[in-house]
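hi!! sorry for the late reply, been swamped w classes. u asked for the two structures so here they r. pasted raw, havent cleaned anything up. first the sequence of the first protein and right below it the tokens
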Amino acid sequence: MKKLYTALFLLSIIWSTSFLFIKLLLNDIGPEAIVFYRCFFGAVTLLIIMLIKKVKIDFKNLPKMSLIIIISLFNHAIPWLFLSFSETHLQSNEAAILNAFTPIATLLIGYFFFSQRIKRMQGIGLFIGIIGLMIMMNINPSTIFSNNIIYSLLMLFVTFCYGLGSHLTKKYLQKIDVLTISFLTLAISGVFSFIYMCFVGKGTVKPFVNLEVFSGVFGLGVLCSGLAYLLFYYMVKEGSAEFATMVTYIVPVFASVWGFFFLDEPLTYKMVIGLLIVLLGVFITNSKKKSKISNSKANAAS
């Protein structure tokens, strides 16, 4: 559990910077190119690590490629595209705070699609989390059809993609090496996002002729994608999908710090109150789950 919580804390710091990088890159290369270069640099980073460690992909023991493609798209390409689009209208810290709904979205995905029961305390936590989310989104009759609400809903869709991708990873890729999972899913997402970028996006060459843009996509790809997903898939395999998505509790804290210092983004009292309520809901939802993880680890050790 010490290793799991260390990975959780490190991943929260790394992933919190992704919201900053995306915000800084949007005007230069747009959402479509951001997704591709994030996948590209992440996959290249992992490929280099695999070559150094002489890790070979055992294609015979992999599940169906169609299944890996689906998992790749829901873990990377689809949510990253909608996340980038949401930040065209939302502050980076607003997007990070809405991202804190991921553990609750993961619980709902588990209930509706993976036959997981929602116990009493989990139901209470879910209800509290939804209230906090509504406060963060500033939902009222005058704003229900505003642009911010629409882009907040896009960010909410991102959390459900993460939840689905985490459960699929846990169910179907449990026996696959973490490095292999990380590389394959990023590489596959890179192929699809490249095709999409060529038809829809802009800025396909700019990162390689602009040092500032290159630094942004390099950091987003290498740190926030390649190295980060090694930690994420490790937590999914050794803990659970719900445990891995707990990283989104801590991400908004660091993301708000980066946004405040580097983007001059303000923090409203509704954002803070809503986040605290969501975190309370997530804590209640996962409290028993964490104890189960601890018990299972102890039993395995004995």
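now the second protein. again sequence first, tokens right under
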Amino acid sequence: MLFRTVPKTGDRLSILGFGCMRLPSKNGGIDEARAIRQIRHAIDSGVNYLDTAPAYHLGKSEQVLGKALQDGYREKVRIATKLPHWEVRDAGDMEWILAKQLATLQTDHIDYYLLHSMSKESWEKMAKLGVLAFLDRAKSEGKIVNAGFSFHGTLSAFKEIVDAYDWQFCQIQYNFLDENNQAGTQGLRYAAGKNLAVMVMEPLRGGNLAGPVPDDIQRIWDKAPIKRSAAEWGLRWVWNHPEVTVVLSGMNNEYHIDENLKAAGSALPESLTPDDLARISRVKETYLRLMKVGCTGCGYCMPCPAGIDIPGCFALYNAHHLFPKDRSTRFHYISRHGGIIGDVSYAGLCLQCGKCAKACPQHLPIPELMKDVKADMEGMIRVAVPVFKGGLWCMNKIAKVRALFSREKSHD
């Protein structure tokens, strides 16, 4: 495992951080036993930075991380969690939220504490409520060690927040598709120039830059003299920037964890060759041509008042265009979101209320995009769903009759 240094404190952090927003799932919740095994395996392999938040997994992420860090693991790591601005009405709310987080995480201090998902509007709200005095107080009391913020907004707002306080670190979305989105490369360099450690989230765009990848993109990767997975290419592009301190990966698969750990043992800054960088640029151009929606699957838009699975609809809509040879994506869309498997959750239910767009860190015009998804993916949904459901009903009845016949025959 390689490590990089927090400029203002000298703290040594693993270049690979464990993001706890997408822990393995089971029966609609977190698969706790598996998640704990994965977290501890990563720590045993050198990871010492773990990132969570109250919003992740509907409040369960902090709880599971707290359990995973028992038995001596807490002393080996730095915990990062976040203050959700949408739950803050007055200064007193900040105190009880932090107290609750400390109890849930089963610790007496949080190493890296962030104001969650800052933009111009949320920053102005929190500043008026006295958040900087709260951070000073929490640090003086030893409840938090380092203060920072995560960001989803404009470059100008990012610079304003960076300059407003003596932060130790910040967290931005950054990958080879987002060089000029949100804080982007300019923001990365600006923060580093102010001696802030920079933690990177969404290095693979919510997994969209990892495998499987479209044929047009795989052909570009396959021509590289050094063979790497799409995920490793994406992570190495971020690590190639010396201004980056930690790259967070939402790892929930044992193979992917080990693959990322291996890459984190050799991904030095400025180690990619000019040929490597040119190859990644060609991949970027191809993705931008093929991809319809820049959704990372973060889930901030959820729950939808109309019951739409917004990230799920976007994922299959993108897949339909990224993998044109795969004729099954519309079928999967209809079966998954049309009520055949699970609840009805298709894009055509959109009420155009705009709640999702206000919550989206990517600032996507989700209601308008829902119209595109509906037009492209739902032409047969009102016909196909009753047909499929009828077929499933008939198959179920036939199975029951056969089972009954088998039982009667066994008694002859």
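hope this helps!! also noticed smth abt the second:
Residues 155 and 183 are 5 Å apart (CA to CA).
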